[in-house]
Amino acid sequence: MLLLVLLLELTVVILFFAYTDKIDKYAQQDLRDGLHLYGTEGNIGLTNAWSIIQTDFRCCGVSNYTDWFAVYNSTRVPDSCCLEFSDSCGLHSPGTWWKAVRDPPGPRPDPRRPQ
Ligand SMILES: *[C@@H]1O[C@H](CO)[C@@H](O)[C@H](O)[C@H]1NC(C)=O
Ligand SMILES: *[C@@H]1O[C@H](CO)[C@@H](O)[C@H](O)[C@H]1NC(C)=O
């Protein structure tokens, strides 16, 4: 069972990595709706997946950390959003959280295929 959960999470992470460039605004809205399930009962897989994604990809939320404000009704984010993880660090200021899904420093090679 644990292995299955790990495999599922790995799949989510890989899919996220593969498709993050192509996620359109409708998918983004879906993901934002999904944020509301974070940390709720029966959604451990989703909760863990967000934690892993945010930690591994150094991101916070779907577009940025403001996506979490709607979830918590306040200016806080999950601890996995923190540049330096510590308990309840998600209650600190935005300056201590990841800024964006991807924060490319300057231009990066992006071989976009013609549509
Ligand atoms: C976060 O993303 C939203 C939607 O893309 C944008 O309107 C907003 O300005 C961004 N905020 C910050 C702090 O980057
Ligand atoms: C956020 O606000 C909505 C509407 O006011 C409420 O239904 C919901 O329970 C609140 N959520 C939290 C986490 O406080």
From TrEMBL:
One of its GO terms (cellular component) is membrane. It comes from the Eukaryota. It is a multi-pass membrane protein. Keywords: Glycoprotein, Membrane, Signal, Transmembrane, Transmembrane helix. Belongs to the tetraspanin (TM4SF) family. Residues 1-18 form the signal peptide. Pfam families: Tetraspanin (PF00335). This is Tetraspanin-4. It is found in: Membrane.
